[in-house]
């Protein structure tokens, strides 16, 4: 079934071809962020006790339009870091999410010690080199947008570059593409690509079917602390949250508030 992902992938192919012409791989590999730094481990960041937060920097989305007007990626990242986000996701897709590679580079310059995830539509190994060259520590690989061979090849290439991979699925069918000897972190997106409706139970259904030693990250439509407790009780150890934090006056304080509220609910449930 056609959905917005098909359009994004088609436009991404064109964009990547233009970028290859403008900035060859050899030039990317000469950049200090590529040659002179060891990427942080997203896997280790998500092994903290309790629920790990991947806090997202996102200016806009196809379903919600403009999300934040006073958009300062570096300041937002500093707030996330000050409030102990486990990692920071930066949208770099320009046409549908109003993102930019420069945003990730700015964030890296201002937040050196927190793992950074390049959130984009990765379909070519060139984008992996790009990601490392602007300071990313990890990349998103969307299983729905790739066949099993492409997914495995991109994951292997990213790993060779020292980048962690968050492999994202939308449905149970996507699980058939995954090599569980390779994948260490799985994200489940709760948003339906055709209707944009959110079903939190999607995470619970899919995570029941994956190996126990794989890191689990629930994505999309998360803002309620009771939902976070429910997910944690089901063995999900990470959440990726963007819109809820980006609409807050201080995104970092919103991270702490949501974390504290979830902890309080969990404590009340145990007593």
Task: Summarize the SSE layout with pairings.
Layout: H1 4-22, H2 25-29, H3 32-35, H4 42-45, E1 52-57, E2 60-61, E3 65-66, H5 73-82, E4 87-91, H6 94-97, H7 101-110, E5 116-119, H8 125-133, E6 138-142, H9 148-160, E7 164-169, E8 185-189, H10 201-207, E9 215-219, H11 225-233, E10 238-241, H12 243-246, H13 251-270
Parallel strand pairs: 1-4, 1-10, 4-5, 5-6, 6-7, 7-8, 8-9, 9-10
Antiparallel strand pairs: 2-3
Helix pairs in contact: 5-7, 5-13, 11-13
Number of domains: 1
How many DSSP-defined strands?
10
Strand order in the largest sheet: 1-4-5-6-7-8-9-10
Counting H and I runs of at least 4 residues, what is the number of helices? 13
Taking all Cα atoms into account, the compactness measure Rg is 17 Å
Strand content: 15-25%
Q: Quick check: average pLDDT?
A: 94
Assign the CATH superfamily: Aldolase class I
Shape: globular
**Regions with little confidence, pLDDT below 50 for 5+ residues:** none
CATH architectural arrangement: Alpha-Beta Barrel
Q: Identify the CATH class.
A: Alpha Beta
The fold-level CATH name is: TIM Barrel
Give the biggest sheet: 8 strands, parallel, barrel
Structural class: alpha/beta
What's the N-to-C terminus distance? 48 Å
Written as H for each helix and E for each strand, in order along the chain, the element string is: HHHHEEEHEHHEHEHEEHEHEHH
Helix content range: 40-55%
